Amino acid sequence: MTNQISTKIDDRLLYRRQFFLGPSYVESVPGWNKIPVNNDYFLTTHPDLTYTHFKKNKIEVFSLGFLLDPYNPKFNDKEIISDLVNQSDDFDTFVKNTYHLSGRWLIIYRDEENINLFHDAAGSRQIFYTFHKSGVWCASQPHTIAKELNIELSTNPHLLEFINSKEFAEDEHCMVGDGTIYDNIQHLMPNHYLSINDRKINRYWPDKPITKLSMEEAANKVAELFVGLYESANNRFDLMQSVTAGVDSRALLAGSKKESQDIAYFIQKFEKLNNLSPDIRVPKKYLPNLGLEFHINKCEEYDELFDDYLEKNVYMIQSEKKKVLYYDFFKYHQGKVNVSGNIGGIIRHTGYNHFDGDGNAKELAKLFFAEDKKYALDAIQKWLDGGILKMVEENNIYLKDLFYWEHRGANWIPMFQAELDIAIEEWNPANCRELIIASFAVSPDGKNTKKRTELYELICEKLWPETLEFPLSPPDYFSFTYSKNQIKKMLYKFIVALHLLPLAKRIKNGPRKNS
What we know:
6-stranded antiparallel beta sheet, Glutamine Phosphoribosylpyrophosphate, subunit 1, domain 1, 19 helices
């Protein structure tokens, strides 16, 4: 799983795979690409950030990153963009025509009237922006904008209380809402686009009610998309895919079946992970049974010089413990594309055991362990005040689905990828709006959250049934370093196995409050 790409640590790693868009080029990053969007706005992009340009009549499209088309798996980025333009009459139609795409990308769409920016379904190619007196500035990270424009860190006491809290650190520094650590620099959230000329953020999705699908119909749709997307990715990239004992991982493995002989399957062994951990011992058994090799990458090395660049490249590090993972990718796997299942949380209600209640900011804030933090409560209430409750009702969407997608998913998932950019490119196969909508359609009222896991299991049955011959997410009985939450979850699973549901629910939900 090695290649010959240079592992030299030097200035080419600074802001690797990042971009700037503004009323002038950025001169502080020598050697970067300089691309005019029109007479007023200019792109400055890192040499390792894939760039595509297509022009037809008075329409110009600039894409940063890579796009994957499951229905045209042989298309490259230029062919995908040209196909989108040829099928679109205006910007609104163009956006709708991207719903089937996966990848990790952002698009700048310019016509005679405006410049609009939007990104992939999960917002994994991040866009941060500020409405400055000199014009609109956008970049991959907020601190790079702040550096160019001399914007100071926020002194908002509620923000400082939130980001300096123990809960924020334990939650891997995951922000809530569209804010950053700078008062005037925001994060463009999924399902929205930025209008440069109007200096406005506009929502483009949902655009129509979701039509309910049976489990079978949804599984067929998602399975079809997985197969097409893997074929597209394998035609373009040298893929490596992390494999665990979880259901997300198993579904992606099933989706990769036709391309599996070209993919390097692995796990990164670090911190508390050991050979008896489910995420190692389970795939170590079932992958050879499927005729596949399983690589266990020991992440034990680190270089302090690498750390200097990593710390400069992102405005917050998720976790110090993950740094060895990035260095492992950098030293041994450059040139590959890492396939990840992180976006599965948007589909499976991940974390929903932490909170209840629709339309209540305090209850929703529990997903961030921030129900007592005014900054988080204000950010969520601002989102709710934008007509969210009426919108989800009219479009058959479960509020918590949209909340997880636009708050938790949008802030936590891209953080890891942004940190990983110094080493390697990453792709989430489930980062596809058409796929997410199909999963939402299984239970549009959101009453049965278990259905999402069942959907993934049905996809495995359809694409590669042998992947289900080994257990999914078995308890880690061999770990000797459990947190209180881990012990609680293990006890809950054990009691469920004994069919003692009333007692299990009591343990899961905690003691009843006196009325």
